[in-house]
């Protein structure tokens, strides 16, 4: 019997490295991208076309993409917050353009320097341009359960943002537990509000593992039919300025869960863990993935 498929969208080279204190050279990022693609990952964020003054770590994403060995089925994904970002993505021939806003006004202001309503207006030409060029459009909503500035966020604050992004033509919505505060009960309440708005196959969950709840939250959303999850090899990430902040849930940890639940991902866990350990060695940091650590020589 064929196993049901779950898609993992690899975040390590974007969400992970955007928080590293020292920028990693583009050729190293490209090498890691190719190594990750070699483990069977088909969807990988290569970086961001954002202001290098705001996020210097994501500068030269065009050079990263130029170093990627393309293959059938491989999706090269990038963040494109505005028209300038879209131009960069199209010039680099990325496959997926991702816009990003939040369910919290304070977070949106600090992250992309505008209100939520303004962000939607900025995304309109990005969406149109991406579609006209035949690209897929992903849209993130951050702070879906909690915000570092405003505290708890209600599902009723998330749903209208999701609706506006769908109206723009988003092919996929990724719900971000940006600061890793969510627990399964909150995820269920969130999904109660969001699932009626779109087909479940258009919905992804983007967990940060700050409080160690990400695998539980993914398990809860698997039960609700979600089959797309964002994760980062070796749990890369963690903001140097935010106490205790961590990266996305480790891809290795999610893979181990999915394998146990009988899902197919097309990804080789052992090969992925080797890439994760190599990246941690390069960055001279401990590997926060419990599963990844078990593969360390
Ligand atoms: P702004 O300052 O309002 O924009 O920034 P602006 O249009 O006034 O431009 C200011 C300067 O930025 C100009 O340069 C522009 O050319 C330049 P100057 O004239 O001063 O030399 N600029 C750009 N340069 C390169 N690429 C661009 C671009 N746009 C403008 N696309 C902007 C607005 C959105 C650009 C800025 O706020 C920004 O770059 N923010 C960074 C946001 C970011 O990358 N955050 C992290 C990713 S989101 C995330 O991590 C959450 C997620 O993981 C989900 C979750 O966990 O919840 C996705
Ligand atoms: Mg994130």
From TrEMBL:
Gene3D superfamilies in alphabetical order: Aldolase class I
Coiled-coil features, chain-numbered ranges: none
Pfam families named in the record: HMGL-like
The keyword NAD belongs to this UniProt entry's keyword annotation: no
Taxonomic superkingdom: Bacteria
Keywords of the record: Lyase, Metal-binding
InterPro entries per UniProt: Aldolase_TIM (IPR013785), HMGL (IPR043594), PYR_CT (IPR000891)
Residues covered by the Pyruvate carboxyltransferase domain: 6-273
Gene Ontology MF term list: lyase activity
Signal peptide from the UniProt entry: none
Family listed: Belongs to the HMG-CoA lyase family.
PANTHER family: HYDROXYMETHYLGLUTARYL-COA LYASE
Name by which UniProt lists this protein: Hydroxymethylglutaryl-CoA lyase
């Amino acid at each position: 019997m064929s196993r049901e498929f779950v898609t993992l969208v690899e975040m390590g080279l974007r969400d992970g490295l955007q928080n590293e204190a020292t920028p990693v050279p583009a050729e190293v990022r490209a090498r890691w991208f190719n190594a990750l693609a070699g483990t069977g990952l088909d969807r990988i964020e290569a970086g961001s076309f954002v202001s290098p003054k705001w996020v210097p770590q994501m500068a030269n994403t065009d050079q990263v993409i130029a170093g990627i060995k393309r293959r059938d089925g491989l999706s090269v994904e990038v963040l494109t917050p505005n028209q300038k970002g879209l131009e960069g993505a199209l010039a680099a021939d990325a496959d997926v353009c991702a816009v990003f806003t939040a369910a919290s006004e304070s977070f949106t202001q600090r992250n992309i320097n505008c209100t939520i309503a303004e962000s939607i207006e900025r995304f309109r030409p990005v969406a149109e341009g991406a579609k006209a060029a035949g690209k897929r459009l992903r849209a993130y909503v951050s702070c879906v359960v909690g915000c570092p500035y405003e505290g708890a966020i209600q599902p009723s604050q998330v749903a209208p943002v999701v609706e506006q992004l769908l109206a723009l033509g988003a092919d996929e919505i990724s719900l971000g537990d940006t600061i890793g505060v969510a627990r399964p009960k909150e995820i269920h309440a969130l999904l109660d509000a969001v699932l009626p708005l779109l087909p479940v196959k258009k919905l992804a969950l983007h967990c940060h593992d700050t409080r160690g709840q990400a695998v539980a939250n993914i398990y809860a959303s698997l039960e609700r039919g979600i089959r797309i999850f964002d994760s980062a090899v070796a749990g890369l990430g963690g903001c140097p300025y935010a106490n205790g902040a961590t990266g996305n849930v480790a891809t290795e940890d999610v893979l181990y869960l999915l394998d146990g639940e009988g899902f197919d991902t097309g990804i080789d866990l052992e090969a992925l863990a080797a890439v994760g350990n190599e990246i941690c060695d390069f960055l001279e940091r401990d590997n926060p993935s419990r599963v990844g650590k078990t593969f360390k020589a």
